[in-house]
Design a protein that fits this description.
Largest sheet: none
InterPro entries: Homeodomain-like_sf (IPR009057), HTH-type_Tx_Regulator (IPR050624), HTH_TetR (IPR001647), TetR_C_Firmicutes (IPR039532)
Strand content: under 5%
Number of strands: 0
Radius of gyration: 19 Å
Protein name: TetR/AcrR family transcriptional regulator
Distance between the termini: 53 Å
Structural class: mainly alpha
Organism: Candidatus Eisenbergiella merdavium
Number of helices: 9
GO molecular function, one term: DNA binding
Helix content: over 70%
Keywords: DNA-binding
Order of helices and strands: HHHHHHHHH
Shape: elongated
């Protein structure tokens, strides 16, 4: 990595850090470029070299998280325990970002974006596991399992991830396994 690349990365990180800090106390539509520039110690033209506007910062951060989640999902999908472990490890490593981006101040649709990201990755397995269900039924089963699991994971994040992830994974596997066993 050359010096110019390092500066670009450093500037983007400073902008994102300032943006996240502001999101803790303000809604995204109340944050100004001026505030981010002051906190990041950059000028407005530097901000606009990297982002179109404030919503673009949020959008790019979400895209980065969803892209990383999708890439990390691929090798873990055959085993639900591995999948949950990967998701929770990622959430724990970047807990503040998930918590802030899923808050009322940021994008209220972010949890749904995570849901659909995972849906696209997991759905082919649902087709193989439940060939006797219609597409509509498989969709309902996925929604039931994912939204219940998502609620538990959201609560785990909001509670500061105090409960050991292994206990949460065990609970999710038992709850989801019990629900799935009713379909067989």
């Amino acid at each position: 990595m050359n010096v110019a690349d390092a500066r670009v990365i450093g500037t983007r990180n400073a902008i994102r850090k300032s943006f996240l800090e502001l999101l803790r106390n303000k809604t995204v539509n109340r944050i100004t470029v001026r505030e981010i520039c002051e906190m990041s110690r950059i000028n407005r033209s530097t901000f606009y070299k990297h982002y179109r506007d404030i919503p673009d910062v949020l959008e790019k951060m979400e895209e980065e998280i969803l892209s990383g989640l999708t890439e990390n999902l691929k090798p873990t999908l055959p085993r639900m325990e591995s999948y949950l472990d990967m998701v929770m490890t990622e959430m724990k490593a970047r807990g503040d970002i998930y918590l802030i981006l899923a808050s009322e101040n940021a994008d209220p649709d972010f949890p749904a974006k995570i849901f659909w990201c995972c849906y696209r990755a997991v759905y082919p397995q649902f087709e193989r596991k439940f060939p006797y269900l219609t597409d509509a039924q498989r969709d309902m089963v996925y929604r039931f399992l994912a939204q219940g699991s998502g609620g538990i994971l959201s609560g785990w994040i909001r509670d500061g991830m105090q409960e050991p992830k292994e206990k949460v994974i065990d609970l999710l596997l038992r709850l989801n396994g019990g629900a799935v066993s009713l379909l067989q």
